[in-house]
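ok new one. same drill as before - structure tokens go in, u give me an amino acid for every spot. 512 of them this time. try not to just spam alanines like last time pls lmao
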């Protein structure tokens, strides 16, 4: 299991409260030495026990949050757009001993974006299982588009800090990941992995292959197929496992959307008891999602098949501040089928600084004996002048108070690069829309936009330094109002884009 050794438990304690799911993906290879990797890709959406169910639930929740996290700081130059990209990350424990480090190398025009929802750089493919799984292109177009990654960590078997893995990624002209390879320092314990993605004419992932290698020999193979509707939204994916000389269907997921293209339901089918691939697939878990008027995820309710019945399992609830695209509150409740009530499990809250960025994260767990929320961790994030995180300190509650010395300190290192191919909107003005009033107090109205009603648009707010601080996606219906209550006074740029990312209008506003 994933939580066997003290190293794994401490590492999970560091990341799960803040990140829950995607933190597992970021350094999951370092924690999985006890797992048989050959089983994981084929069982990417199959659940074998309570801990596995909870982990998969958290992974899916993080996946659903991902489309809201495409944030990147930019400054215009004479020859292109200048960005910062993360080139290294190191974590030390409370006594200053290195615990984990990542080093990255990029092609000239590729960079990284920080995830303000989960407060991470998601380096690795999703789940360390079947990275081909794709929703809205978020894994085939990763937030960190490195070419090579070197990962050093504390070995969970020897507790010696040293090299652990090297990852290699290649991309097509649309920045889709077409291949990804992980080579482990100890491939006898942690299998090497190779992933290959293929795309259709609309540049959506169509077919994906994954392989595990032991001593240079392919130990297992898996492939996944994806289907889309006329709006290019994923409607079905099916995973096959190569077994006894033939391919066998092992799981599939179905996706349902509302009229605004919000993903409102996911149904996963598999058969965890069938080792011969002869029994029909059974629905194992179901996710029901709701959104607010800005298409931000509000609730995720999961129902789980326990082998006998199909009933409620976990509910997550999110809250947001103003127009910000990342949540500032996350609560989780798990259903107790014996006592038939929803038990509180997890409570996360973020404080937003004057630049509109989360700088303090408080994690609480529920004490079922005292019937109260109890502190668990406190995370404090500082940012550099470009609004990228430079230090994350985590303090573990010791049942009485938070200690003065952080349990873990993560430092990020950056490199400035010039992207001559970047077409991301840069503040400038045209007359394609009417935005009023200006100056603005609590909200402004967008009207007279030269686009047909019913088309998808996005509204982004940049601060004066080029940082995207908020984004909303909506269906255009002639006009819309955007809240500015949470913005500090100053100058901002409003950027309107169509569903394909083409700029429609750019205009400066003054927040009083």
């Amino acid at each position: 299991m994933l939580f066997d050794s003290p190293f794994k438990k401490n590492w999970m304690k560091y990341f799960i409260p803040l990140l829950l799911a995607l933190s597992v993906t970021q350094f999951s290879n370092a924690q999985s030495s006890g797992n048989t990797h050959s089983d994981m890709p084929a069982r990417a959406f199959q659940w074998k026990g309570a801990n596995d169910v909870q982990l998969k639930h958290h992974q899916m929740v993080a996946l659903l949050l991902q489309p809201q996290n495409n944030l990147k700081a930019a400054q215009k130059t004479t020859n292109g757009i200048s960005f910062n990209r993360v080139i290294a990350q190191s974590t030390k424990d409370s006594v200053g001993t290195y615990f984990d480090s990542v080093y990255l190398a990029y092609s000239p025009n590729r960079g990284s974006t920080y995830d303000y929802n989960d407060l991470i750089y998601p380096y690795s493919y999703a789940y360390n299982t079947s990275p081909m799984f794709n929703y809205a292109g978020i894994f085939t177009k990763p937030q960190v588009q490195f070419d090579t990654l070197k990962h050093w960590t504390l070995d969970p078997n020897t507790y010696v800090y040293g090299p652990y893995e090297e990852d290699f990624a290649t991309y097509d002209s649309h920045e889709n990941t077409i291949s990804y390879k992980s080579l482990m320092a100890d491939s006898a314990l942690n299998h090497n992995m190779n992933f290959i993605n293929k795309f259709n004419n609309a540049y959506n992932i169509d077919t994906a292959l994954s392989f595990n290698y032991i001593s240079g020999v392919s130990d297992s193979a898996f492939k996944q197929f994806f289907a889309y509707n006329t709006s290019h939204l994923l409607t079905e994916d099916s995973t096959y496992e190569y077994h006894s000389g033939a391919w066998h269907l092992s799981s599939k997921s179905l996706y349902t959307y509302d009229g605004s293209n919000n993903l409102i339901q996911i149904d996963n089918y598999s058969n965890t008891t069938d080792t011969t691939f002869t029994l029909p697939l059974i629905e194992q878990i179901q996710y029901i999602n709701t959104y607010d008027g800005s298409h931000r995820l509000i609730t995720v309710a999961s129902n789980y098949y326990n082998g006998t019945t199909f009933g409620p399992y976990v509910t997550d609830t999110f809250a947001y501040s103003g127009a910000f695209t990342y949540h500032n509150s996350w609560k989780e409740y798990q259903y107790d089928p014996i006592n038939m009530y929803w038990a509180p499990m997890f409570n996360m809250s973020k404080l937003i600084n004057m630049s509109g960025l989360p700088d303090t994260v408080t994690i609480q767990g529920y004490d079922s004996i005292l019937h109260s929320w109890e502190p668990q961790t406190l995370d404090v994030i500082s940012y550099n002048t470009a609004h990228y995180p430079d230090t994350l300190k985590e303090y573990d509650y010791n049942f009485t108070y938070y200690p003065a010395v952080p349990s873990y300190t993560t430092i990020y290192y950056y490199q400035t690069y010039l992207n001559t191919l970047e077409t991301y909107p840069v503040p400038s003005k045209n007359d394609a829309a009417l935005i009023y009033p200006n100056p603005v107090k609590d909200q402004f109205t967008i009207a007279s936009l030269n686009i047909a009603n019913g088309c998808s648009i996005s509204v982004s707010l940049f601060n004066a330094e080029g940082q995207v601080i908020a984004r909303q996606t909506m269906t255009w219906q002639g006009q819309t109002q955007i809240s500015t209550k949470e913005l500090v006074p100053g100058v901002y740029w409003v950027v309107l884009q169509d569903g394909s990312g083409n700029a429609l209008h750019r205009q400066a506003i003054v927040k009083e």
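The mean pLDDT is 77. and btw The radius of gyration is 23 Å.
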